Amino acid sequence: MVVESFLAAIGDARDLRRAFPTDVNVPVLVRSALDDMFRRGVWEALYAAHPNAPGFFTFSRVGFDASGAQALVYMAHSYGNPGGVGQFIRLTRAGASWMIANRCTVWMS
Known about the structure:
38% strand, 3 helices
Protein backbone atom coordinates (compact mmCIF):
# COMPACT_ATOMS: atom_id res chain seq x y z
CA MET A 1 0.00 0.00 0.00
CA VAL A 2 2.84 2.42 0.74
CA VAL A 3 4.18 1.98 -2.82
CA GLU A 4 0.80 2.83 -4.36
CA SER A 5 0.57 5.94 -2.17
CA PHE A 6 4.11 6.92 -3.16
CA LEU A 7 3.33 6.52 -6.88
CA ALA A 8 0.23 8.69 -6.50
CA ALA A 9 2.12 11.39 -4.55
CA ILE A 10 5.07 11.80 -6.93
CA GLY A 11 2.86 13.11 -9.72
CA ASP A 12 2.09 16.25 -7.68
CA ALA A 13 5.19 18.46 -7.29
CA ARG A 14 5.29 20.98 -4.44
CA ASP A 15 7.45 23.98 -3.60
CA LEU A 16 9.29 23.31 -0.32
CA ARG A 17 10.62 26.81 0.35
CA ARG A 18 7.91 27.57 2.93
CA ALA A 19 8.53 24.23 4.70
CA PHE A 20 11.83 25.41 6.21
CA PRO A 21 12.08 27.77 9.18
CA THR A 22 13.23 31.23 8.12
CA ASP A 23 16.21 31.11 10.50
CA VAL A 24 17.67 28.03 8.75
CA ASN A 25 20.15 28.91 6.00
CA VAL A 26 19.32 26.22 3.43
CA PRO A 27 19.03 27.42 -0.16
CA VAL A 28 16.05 25.72 -1.81
CA LEU A 29 15.98 25.74 -5.59
CA VAL A 30 12.75 25.47 -7.48
CA ARG A 31 12.77 23.08 -10.44
CA SER A 32 12.92 25.92 -12.99
CA ALA A 33 16.12 27.30 -11.39
CA LEU A 34 17.73 23.86 -11.44
CA ASP A 35 16.66 23.36 -15.07
CA ASP A 36 18.23 26.73 -15.93
CA MET A 37 21.49 25.68 -14.24
CA PHE A 38 21.54 22.49 -16.34
CA ARG A 39 21.14 24.55 -19.52
CA ARG A 40 24.05 26.80 -18.51
CA GLY A 41 26.31 24.02 -17.20
CA VAL A 42 24.99 22.88 -13.86
CA TRP A 43 28.18 22.52 -11.88
CA GLU A 44 29.72 25.84 -12.89
CA ALA A 45 26.41 27.66 -12.29
CA LEU A 46 25.74 25.88 -8.98
CA TYR A 47 29.18 26.50 -7.52
CA ALA A 48 29.25 30.10 -8.76
CA ALA A 49 25.98 30.76 -6.92
CA HIS A 50 26.75 28.52 -3.91
CA PRO A 51 30.54 28.04 -3.62
CA ASN A 52 30.39 25.84 -0.48
CA ALA A 53 27.52 23.63 -1.64
CA PRO A 54 28.02 19.85 -1.31
CA GLY A 55 26.10 19.43 -4.58
CA PHE A 56 22.33 19.29 -4.50
CA PHE A 57 19.63 17.00 -3.19
CA THR A 58 16.28 16.23 -4.76
CA PHE A 59 13.38 14.61 -2.94
CA SER A 60 10.13 13.07 -4.10
CA ARG A 61 6.83 13.59 -2.38
CA VAL A 62 6.24 11.08 0.42
CA GLY A 63 3.87 8.12 0.16
CA PHE A 64 2.29 6.70 3.33
CA ASP A 65 0.63 3.39 4.09
CA ALA A 66 -3.03 3.38 5.16
CA SER A 67 -2.15 3.46 8.86
CA GLY A 68 0.35 6.31 8.50
CA ALA A 69 3.01 4.19 10.20
CA GLN A 70 5.23 3.66 7.14
CA ALA A 71 6.46 6.06 4.50
CA LEU A 72 8.46 5.86 1.27
CA VAL A 73 10.49 8.69 -0.29
CA TYR A 74 13.05 8.93 -3.08
CA MET A 75 16.19 11.00 -2.51
CA ALA A 76 19.02 11.79 -4.92
CA HIS A 77 22.30 13.52 -4.09
CA SER A 78 24.21 14.86 -7.07
CA TYR A 79 27.68 16.26 -6.43
CA GLY A 80 29.69 16.21 -9.65
CA ASN A 81 29.90 14.97 -13.18
CA PRO A 82 29.72 12.09 -12.68
CA GLY A 83 28.97 11.84 -9.02
CA GLY A 84 25.80 11.02 -7.19
CA VAL A 85 23.49 8.46 -5.69
CA GLY A 86 19.74 7.82 -5.78
CA GLN A 87 17.91 5.90 -3.05
CA PHE A 88 14.45 4.86 -2.02
CA ILE A 89 14.12 5.29 1.75
CA ARG A 90 11.49 3.46 3.78
CA LEU A 91 10.63 5.09 7.10
CA THR A 92 8.67 3.79 10.06
CA ARG A 93 6.99 5.87 12.72
CA ALA A 94 8.40 5.47 16.23
CA GLY A 95 6.10 7.47 18.49
CA ALA A 96 6.36 11.10 17.39
CA SER A 97 9.53 10.46 15.36
CA TRP A 98 10.38 8.74 12.10
CA MET A 99 13.19 6.18 11.78
CA ILE A 100 14.88 4.93 8.61
CA ALA A 101 13.87 1.28 8.28
CA ASN A 102 15.94 0.63 5.16
CA ARG A 103 17.42 2.18 2.04
CA CYS A 104 17.60 0.81 -1.47
CA THR A 105 20.24 2.38 -3.70
CA VAL A 106 18.95 2.39 -7.28
CA TRP A 107 21.79 4.25 -8.99
CA MET A 108 25.28 5.49 -8.25
CA SER A 109 27.87 7.27 -10.37
